[in-house]
Amino acid sequence: MIEIKNVNKTYGGSVKAVDDLNLTIAKGEIFGFLGPNGAGKTTTIKMLTGILNPDGGSIKVNGFDTKTNPIEVKKQIGFVPDSPNMFLRLKGIEYINFMADMYDVPQEVRKERVETLSKRFGMSEVLGDKIQSYSHGMRQKIVLIGVLVHQPPVWILDEPLTGLDPRSSFILKEMMREHADHNNTVFFSTHVLEVAEKICDRVAIINKGKILFCGTMDEMKDHFKNNESLEKIFLELTENEE
Ligand SMILES: Nc1ncnc2c1ncn2[C@@H]1O[C@H](COP(=O)(O)OP(=O)(O)OP(=O)(O)O)[C@@H](O)[C@H]1O
Ligand SMILES: [Mg+2]
């Protein structure tokens, strides 16, 4: 469960990237975070994961406060950032083992998980290669495997589907559903509205740091009374804000 209360973030004293944000995401939910470029999605995600401190407000993950209990929060979270370009000099398997070490994954279970995950994402053959040699999508997949190897209850994914091939994208969406159905939380940002429409239990649309709408797809369609596609609603909502 994620509880975001009255959270604010201003960069450099002027740009208010997140403006009094309130969101609660329950266990068992896939929650889609939508919004135009520069809306404040990544900033919110960075505060959730402890990369940035909020200027005000509070964030709790499975009951642990990011301010008072940051390590416990990190143990709850698996985070896939928007850019997978990291640890480029490590081999894929070295990176996964590093992640597994950080999260105390025992050797016995680690081997099986790495095998299953790399097979699912078609990465078994390249684990011995350096991340530097990977394509964008392969880099994303190695980051995903590094997160999933420690089986975190709360998944936080910043545009996880960008650059994945159709099969990997399908598998990841399937895994997100499975994970939520096991009473876990999945929070992800995306620009792909068709995906949000299909797999999210609820979505929020954010623009200029403020939530414009939050609810189920049915609630959104009721609210706008015209049974339009999410794309149309999104375009209308964010256009009025220009
Ligand atoms: N490090 C930073 N320093 C200054 N301003 C920043 C910084 N990071 C983000 N911003 C500003 O904060 C606002 C929100 O940015 P953020 O990255 O959270 O948007 P986003 O919703 O993730 O956008 P995108 O869809 O393009 O990824 C933007 O106005 C951006 O210019
Ligand atoms: Mg972003």
Mean pLDDT: 93
Please state roughly what percent of the residues sit in beta strands, choosing from under 5%, 5-15%, 15-25%, 25-35%, 35-45% or over 45%. Answer: 15-25%
Outline: globular
Strand elements, count: 10
Spell out the blueprint of helices and strands.
Layout: E1 2-11, E2 15-25, E3 30-34, H1 41-48, E4 56-61, E5 64-65, H2 70-76, E6 77-80, H3 92-102, H4 107-120, H5 136-148, E7 154-158, H6 166-181, E8 185-189, H7 193-199, E9 202-207, E10 210-215, H8 217-223, H9 230-239
Parallel strand pairs: 3-8, 3-9, 6-7, 7-8
Antiparallel strand pairs: 1-2, 1-4, 4-5, 9-10
Helix pairs in contact: 3-5
The structure holds adenosine-5'-triphosphate and magnesium ion (MG).
Adenosine-5'-triphosphate (ATP) binds at residues 11-12, 15, 17, 35, 37-43.
Structure overview:
The chain has 242 residues and is an alpha/beta fold. It has a domain at 73-188: P-loop containing nucleotide triphosphate hydrolases (Rossmann fold). 38% of the residues lie in helices and 25% in strands. It contains 9 helices and 10 strands. The chain has helices at 41-48, 70-76, 92-102, 107-120, 136-148, 166-181, 193-199, 217-223, 230-239; strands at residues 2-11, 15-25, 30-34, 56-61, 64-65, 77-80, 154-158, 185-189, 202-207, 210-215. A 6-stranded mixed beta sheet has the order 6-7-8-3-9-10, sandwiched between helices. A 4-stranded antiparallel beta sheet has the order 2-1-4-5, with helices on one face. Strand 4 (56-61) and strand 5 form a beta hairpin. Helix 3 packs parallel to helix 5 (136-148). It is globular, with a radius of gyration of 18 Å. The model has no long low-confidence stretch (mean pLDDT 93). The structure holds adenosine-5'-triphosphate and magnesium ion. Residues 41-42, 82, 158 line the site of magnesium ion (MG).
